[in-house]
Each structure stands twice: as C-alpha cells, then as structure tokens.
Write a structure and sequence with these properties.
There is one protein chain. With about 350 residues, the chain is of the alpha/beta class. A nine-stranded mixed sheet has the order 1-2-6-5-4-3-7-8-9, sandwiched between helices. Helix 1 packs across helix 5, helix 7 packs across helix 8 and helix 10 crosses helix 11. The longest helix is centred in the middle third of the chain and has 19 residues.
Length: about 350
C-alpha cells in the first residue's frame, strides 16, 4: 500500500494510516509492524492494549488506549486535511525528506502546508535560544539570508528568538529579490517544523511570519495531525525532526540547558555536524550564560532539574570538537575542510 502516495489511497486506506500515525506510544518501527499485520482501520479499533503489546512484543502497561476515540480523531484529521489542503507524506513517499526518513524513529507521517518540493533540497538547520541578544538576532538573520541566496534551505522551529529570525532571513531574501525583479530560481527556502498540530501556529505572534514563509515558497511541517492536542513533550520531539532534517545544525546562541542544545545532541546522535556561531560567545551572551548556570546550579542542588540539563553546555560541544563559525560563508568553508583542521580548542582560550 505504501508504494502509492497518500492522495492516491482510498478514504479507508487514508484513515488506516492516519489511525496508525496518531498512536503516540508506538515507535515508527512498531507502527510498521501493525501496518504489516493489519488490513484496515476496523482492525485497529478492535485491538485491545494487550493485542497491541503482543504484536510489537513490548509491555504497554502505562499506555492509554481507546480504539474508538483514535478512529474518531483520525476521521476528523482526514476531513481537515482535505478541507485545508494539507499534504500528507508517508515515510516511504518519494517526497518525504530523505535525511529525516533515514534517522532513528522518524515520523510515520509528515503533515505539510506549502511547497513540499523544497523538502529534499540542500539545507541547514538553525537553532537557538528564545532570549536572544541583539548580536544573536543579527547573526540569525544574516546567516539565513546568505544561505537562501546560496540556494540553501534553512530549517528551524518557528519559536520566538533565534528560530523566528532564522526564518525571517530567508523570507527577507525572497522579498528583496522580488522587489528588485531578480530571478529566484535558485533561492533557498525556509522550512518551519511545528511542535503542535499542522493547523496551529505556535507561537501565535508568528502567524504573519508563517504566512510569509508560505508566500515565499517555503513549507510548514508537523508530525501531528490537524485538530490534535498539544503536549509539552512535543517540543523535544520537534527538536529531533529539526536535527534530522539537515546534514548540519548551527547553534546561533544557546545558554546552558537550552532546548537548542537538545537539538544539537540529537544532531550528533544522527551523525550530523554541529556548529556554533560566534554570536553564542559574545560578551552579553556569556553574561547571560553565567546567570543561567548559577540558576541551574541552584535548581540542580534542590532536585528541580536533571544533571543532563545542568551539564548540557556550549562548552561541552566545543570540547568535543564542534567548530565555531562567524557567518554562512565561514560555515561553507568548514564543510570543505578535513575534520579536525579547525579545532574549536583554539577558540576556548579566547572564549573561556
């Protein structure tokens, strides 16, 4: 069945894969097991939690399962996908992002709004903190603007701070070329990965930016179907998609414990490159990092945060060899160098 595109499926087949996709306690491989062993969405409805556990050979005691409710939500999702012209890509579809498909536990389905043709083009993921410094803001916009002019897509998470300015850099490149009446055939696009449902822009203040992403030929994607409910853990799941989308992730600015550093960890887990921008080590950024470290020290001592959060610092990545770059041109130069030639240890004497 999956050798055909989602739009070529019958409605019953569409609801079948939508029903599988939204079972949140199953991994990608476990959903594929159910897909192989079941024939229709009715089979999914009739499954008990014990039946599912037997099929995937894993204990599901803590999982919550209601087959009828799952079907109801899948039918609603299918209705909104058609009504809102939301494109659905199965993991096996030719249009599904290649690097994402080959990462660990990729989304079973990817819901898309906008230009899906850009999803398999050259790209770089750009991430960072929401509490951005003026230098970090300028760095995010400039890096993404230059990437777009070079035909490189920019992937980020549409959050406030670095993410929003990274998207804005690409959007600005589009409108600048439009105003000059210049060709945009080779212009890179921007891809926004949402932490919630595909029909809900988070944060709300980025609705205009999201509209401009679509207008400029970019794409908005999510692994969560329309009308689905948001959960806190979706943000971390979103981070893994951003990291898997591109061969490299650039951290513009991120203090100790930042969610952007979780994205960087995912990138390393996926055997991707991680870079840090010099804006992450400006005087003001380092002052912010120092205050955050003090707060995390206190929170860790009282058990409010984990050791991982406290020890997930920019310094950790630099000690592991992550290069520091000053702009997009510098990023491209590092990509062409042999690993280790530009040792980040050189920067540590100056930065720390």
């Amino acid at each position: 069945m999956n050798k055909r595109r989602f739009n070529d499926f019958s409605e019953a087949e569409q609801i079948f894969v939508l029903s599988l996709s939204r079972i949140s306690f199953l991994s990608f491989e476990e959903k594929k097991i159910l897909e192989k062993n079941l024939d229709s969405y009715i089979d999914i409805v009739l499954l008990s939690k014990d039946d599912i556990a037997a099929l995937i050979k894993r204990d599901l005691n803590r999982a919550v399962w209601d087959g009828k409710e799952n079907l109801r939500c899948a039918e609603i999702a299918n209705y909104y996908c058609k009504k809102m012209n939301i494109q659905v890509l199965l993991n096996s579809d030719v249009g599904y992002p290649y690097l994402l498909r080959n990462a660990f536990n990729p989304p079973y389905l990817l819901y898309c709004r906008g230009n899906t043709e850009c999803l398999n083009k050259k790209s770089v993921s750009v991430v960072g903190t929401r509490k951005i410094t003026p230098q970090g803001k300028d760095a995010a916009i400039k890096f993404s603007y230059e990437a777009a002019l070079d035909g490189c897509n920019v992937v980020s998470g549409l959050a406030n701070g670095v993410d929003g300015y990274a998207h804005l850099g690409c959007v600005n490149a589009y409108f600048d070329l439009l105003e000059k009446d210049e060709s945009m055939a080779e212009l890179g696009k921007t891809i926004a990965v949402l932490p919630g449902s595909i029909d809900s822009i988070i944060p709300y203040n980025h609705k205009k930016l999201a509209a401009n992403i679509l207008k400029s030929g970019g794409c908005i994607v999510s692994e969560y179907e329309p009308a689905s409910q948001m959960a806190k853990w979706h943000f971390i799941e979103r981070n893994r998609i951003i990291a898997a989308f591109s061969p490299a992730t650039v951290v513009i600015q991120a203090p100790c414990g930042s969610g952007a550093l979780i994205t960087a960890d995912f990138a390393l887990d996926f055997n991707r490159d991680v870079f840090f921008h010099t804006a992450a080590f400006s005087e003001l950024a380092m002052q912010i990092n120092g205050r955050v470290e003090q707060r995390l020290d206190s929170d860790f001592a009282t058990g409010k945060v984990s050791r991982y959060k406290r020890e997930n610092t920019p310094q950790k990545f630099l000690l592991s060899g992550a290069p520091v770059i000053c702009d997009y041109k510098d990023y491209c130069a590092v990509l062409g160098e042999q690993p280790g030639i530009r040792s980040s240890l050189i920067f540590q004497k100056e930065l720390f």
